[in-house]
Amino acid sequence: MIWEGSEDEMSRIVILSGSPSVQSGTDKVLRYAGGILQEDGMEVCFHSVRDFAAETLVSANFKDVQIGELIADIEAADGVIVGSPVYKASYTGVLKAVLDLLPESILKNKVVLPVMSGGSSGHVLAIDFALKPLLGVLKGEVLQGVYVVDAQLDKAAVIPIRDVVLDERLRGQLTELVVAVGRHGVGQIS
Q1: Are 172 and 143 in contact (CB under 8 A)?
Q2: Residue range 47-84, pLDDT digits in tens
Q3: Which residues have a Cβ under 8 Å from the Cβ of 80 and sit 6 or more positions away?
């Protein structure tokens, strides 16, 4: 995968979107977050569950080239952001299928920011009770995370977040990610 950002970057962040939808609010938020990180001097690499063939996921093809690229990018990263819309009070099944093909401790010594979006605030605990435990099983150092209600988004806008408080919360979590990556030391987090 191609890392986006300037050549003299110090830290690398992989963003993985768990949304199967082409018109995804989750993707918009994750790409917006990636842009903020790039402005702060981070290299960003974006992956989506849509990048992987259904046959790869259904047959659990651990040797798939694209899965190998995702693994290599995560191994080269200092931090990871994993985002998913809420489906049935949890992350998407396709995100789980992708994560199931990664090595068990792929996130060891990596700072991980979970991001979830949903139609209402009624599923805000999906981060704590579904996504964070999954990321923890993969040995990630999981941050608090950000939950986005769809009504807080404008998918057509360059800046998709319409809610000032939510934007501040996202920026605060991105700052925490950058600080935590810095504590690990660039190049030493892997």
Answers
A1: no
A2: 999 999 999 999 999 999 999 999 999 999 999 999 99
A3: 13, 14, 15, 16, 74, 107, 110, 111, 112, 113, 140
* Residue owning tokens 């319409």: 162
pTM: 0.92
Least confident range of 45-59, 85-99, 149-163, 164-178: 149-163
Contacts of 115 (CB under 8 A, 6+ apart): 26, 29, 30, 33, 81, 82, 83, 84, 145, 146, 147, 148, 170
- Annotation: CATH topology of 11-182: Rossmann fold (3.40.50)
Q: What are phi and psi of 138, to 5 degrees?
A: -85, 10
Asked if 117 and 32 touch (Cβ cutoff 8 Å), the reply is no
Query: CA 150, CA 123: separation in Å to the nearest integer?
Result: 12
| Cross-strand pairs, 46 | 15
| Cβ atoms < 10 Å from Cβ of 13 | 29
16's tokens = 């993985």
Q: CA–CA distance from 39 to each of 11, 36, 100, 116, 139 (Å)? A: 12, 5, 32, 23, 28
Domains in the chain: boundaries: 11-182
Single-letter residue type at 172: G
Cα–Cα distance measured from residue 108 to residue 190, given in angstroms and rounded to the nearest whole number = 7
